[in-house]
Specification:
alpha/beta; seven-stranded mixed sheet; Rossmann fold; two-stranded antiparallel sheet; SAM-dependent_MTases_sf; 9 strands; globular; 27% strand; single chain; 225 residues
Length: 225
């Protein structure tokens, strides 16, 4: 009986059903996402488990939703877009995520790369995310509670780094922790003036690509319970 309950919880009913998810995937394709592996992971990852129960009926809308502590779960398009950019250079075995948040982006990454190292400054959010990923049997994620501006130097370097909050400038520590040939995807700017950047570490330095205007919560320094 417990297993049937868990299966039903993961597969969803009504506004969280597979049919609802398929409509989301169709919309993401129309918006320009094209990676079959990324779309397949989004299709089967139960986003409704990563939001409060009162918002579960909106989980498969292509929109950001509040998760408490003035944070949001990113819209599915942006999750897919940033994941596609990170993986565009080929398979990744070691990815640093700055901003665990709800754990949804973490869950998507964990199904597409070998290992994810996720840093979150708000301990309460990260503890919830740990529980959700454990429930989904995603065990290739290591968590750190701390200041995302510092990255995770003890385990550097990383083939890919994804930042899920907007910094006014690219944190120097993240550039230092990016492996040669590695890719960093990060929103940069303040308020309504944010741009999504792709930064690739090459032999002679860093190549920056400005991709599109975005809107993220700010990447704050320090750590909170």
């Amino acid at each position: 009986m417990r297993r049937r309950h868990d299966d039903l919880l993961h597969s969803g009913i009504g506004m969280t059903s597979q049919r609802t998810r398929e409509r989301l995937i169709q919309r993401l394709c129309e918006e320009g996402l094209s990676s079959p592996p990324v779309l397949e992971v989004i299709r089967h990852t139960p986003r409704h488990l990563f939001v409060d129960e009162a918002l579960a009926h909106r989980a498969y809308e292509d929109t950001a939703l509040p998760i408490g502590h003035n944070q949001t779960i990113s819209q599915p398009y942006m999750v897919g877009r940033m994941t596609e950019l990170l993986l565009a250079g080929g398979p990744l075995d070691k990815v640093l995520e700055i901003g665990t948040g709800s754990g949804y982006q973490t869950a998507v990454l964990a199904q597409l790369v070998e290992r994810v190292f996720s840093v979150e400054r708000i301990q309460t959010l990260q503890e919830r995310a740990k529980e959700r990923l454990l429930e989904l049997k995603l065990r290739n994620v290591v968590f750190r509670w701390g200041d995302g501006w510092e990255g995770w130097p003890a385990l550097a370097s990383y083939n890919g780094i994804m930042v899920t909050a907007a910094a006014p400038d690219v944190p120097p520590a993240l550039l230092e922790q990016l492996a040669p040939g590695g890719r960093l995807v990060i929103p940069v700017g303040t308020g309504d003036e944010q741009q999504l950047l792709l930064i690739v570490r090459e032999a002679d330095g860093f190549r920056r690509h400005v991709l599109e205007t975005v809107r993220f919560v700010p990447l704050l320094q320090g750590s909170l319970f």
